[in-house]
Each structure stands twice: as structure tokens, then as C-alpha cells.
Amino acid sequence: MVEIRVENVTHIYGDKIKTVALRDVSIVFPNGKIIGILGPSGCGKTTLLKIIAGLLKPTKGRIYFDNNDVTDWDPIKRNVAMVFQFPVAYDMTVYDNIAFPLKIRRYPKEEIDRRVKEVIEVLGISKEILNTNARGADPSLRQKIAVARAIVREANVLLLDEPLTNLEPLVRVELKSKLKEIVQKIKITTLYVSHDQAEVLTLAEKVAVMNEGRIVQYDDTSILYEYPKNKFVGYFIGNPGMNYISCVLEEDFLDCKGFRYKLMPNEVEALRKAGKEFDLGIRPEHIKVSRDYGEVEGKVVVVEKLGTAMLYHIEISPNVTIIAKTYMSLNVREGDRIYMTLPREKIRIFSKDGERIV
């Protein structure tokens, strides 16, 4: 178990045609915690993991495990275990696959047997299949084998790169639960990378959100949801993401093209320092909808079902549509008029360059 410190890391792929994958990334991952790394495809998540693992050397910057500069250490010296999106199963028995990192380190057979027995019990791998060839296993079992091989060796760091992406939904739920149980039990520093926010927010204690090679916010999951630092995080976290309505500051209110939002004195002061035009943000599930009353009126243009929730796309003025999410049916159809209340405590205000002000 170690604290991981990333200092001013930049990574560029290519010689003639350069692609900047990471841009001056600095972050600390605490000892023994599960930290999520979340972001869209191509944002630099996997590159960051490979640099921490020692599979890539950064173009610029340093990596520290506790107080040791490990930037020039190879993966074996770093003692990092990694599980990828596509599980690797060697052409040997299930037992030998799991025991492989212990055998190459020449652990005694009794110790190997003990550790293998412990991890298969936690992961739900039947001892009856230990002597079968792992290459013939289904994807879910191969991924369990890969996880078992990673944790059996008591590594300093466990890196999980989209480990559940290609599994069936029920298997994903099962393995996600087991992963959390294992990591909390052995208290290994774990970085969990995914583009699936529900997966990351369920497993991780803190989450780093990445976009275009940068860490744009690093916070507890509740803070990410309630207080996004910028519009990207507000929209990326949530299903659907945060609504944004363009507004203009007028004296002590925002003119939001369809309604006025009255500002508190401290909000007026903060906004006046930032400019004239803003975006008001509110999450779909925070909008209260009614057929009879509310502070904002609009026309329902689309009705969607999302699991047990209803999504109402509501036009509040020409070319301005917001989404309300509710778990009760209002018996409304496309074309009906509807009313909304926007709770003040749930409203966030962003500058035109995307940073949250209020």
C-alpha cells in the first residue's frame, strides 16, 4: 500500500504528428483508498494508468510512491498489479493462472495454496475448476481469474482499467460488489478507470474527472454531483446531465429567456465581477413538475421513459428546451402545457467560459 503522487505529468504521443494525451497533471491518490478516474473516451485515463504502472514513461513530470521517485522504475520494481478491459488468461490451468505471480517470485507452495484458496473464496471461483484450462473459460470467469491473479500477490497498487465493460449486466453487478469487498478488506491503493459513471460512483470513495488530458475536478462523489466546478462536470455526471439555460444579468435578476431568476445580494455581487452573460444550471431530477402550478411554464415537446423514470423535454421559449426527470407519471403528452419549480438551493450559475461562480 502506497500513496501515489503525480507531479506535473505531460505525455505526448508521436514524433511528426504529436498528440497530447496528458497536460500538466498533478494529483495525489491516498494510501489504501479506492479512487475512481472518470471521463470520456480519449481523455487520457488509460495513459495516466500506464504511466503510474511503469508501462509508459511520461514526456515530462514525475511519479512518486510515498516518498520514492519511481518514474524510472520498471513495473516489477513498482509492484503494481493491473487488470485490463480484455482479461488475459494464459494457456494453463485456472490455479496456475492465479498462482503465476507468486510462482515467479518463488513463494513456498504452502503459501501459494493458502493465498489462492483465499482469493477464489472471495471471488466465487469454484475449487472444482482449478485444474481446468483457463483459455476455455467464459469472459466473466476469465475476468475473475485476472482479478484473482492481480490481488493474490499483495501488490502496492491495484490498477483497474475498464475491468467490467465487456461483461453481462448481472455478472458486472456481482463482480463490482466483490471488487469493493476485496479492496476494502486488503486496503490496497486502487485506481479504477471507467467511462461508466454509475460504476465509478458506486465503487470509489473519491473521483477524479478528466477531460482533454486534464484533471478538471477531484472530489468526493457527492460534491461532484452537487457542486460541479464547471459545466463539463455538471453535464458528464448525471443521467441525463445538468440542464444549462443562457441568461443575462439585469440589475438583481437573471433574464433566462422564458423566466426571471431573482438573485440574492451576494449572488449579484459575485456575478457583476464576472461579466454580463451566464448559464444557469439545474439537474433534471431537481426540477419539480406539475400540471397546475409553478414558477416556469413550458410546452412538453418529447416524453421519454428511462427505466422507472419519466423524462419530459420542455420548451420554455423558442430554441430553449430543458429536461425534467420525475419518478411519477403526470399523464401528460407531447404538446401539453406544464409548470416547473426550480429549487433555489439546487441552482448553480456558471460563467460563459464554463466555470461555476455560484
Automatic annotation (TrEMBL):
Keywords: ATP-binding, Cell membrane, Membrane, Nucleotide-binding, Translocase, Transport
Alphabetized GO MF terms: ATP binding; transmembrane transporter activity
CC annotations in GO: plasma membrane; transmembrane transporter complex
Keyword Transcription: no
Domain of life: Archaea
Residue ranges of domain ABC transporter in the record: 4-237
Name listed for the protein in its UniProt record: ABC transporter ATP-binding protein
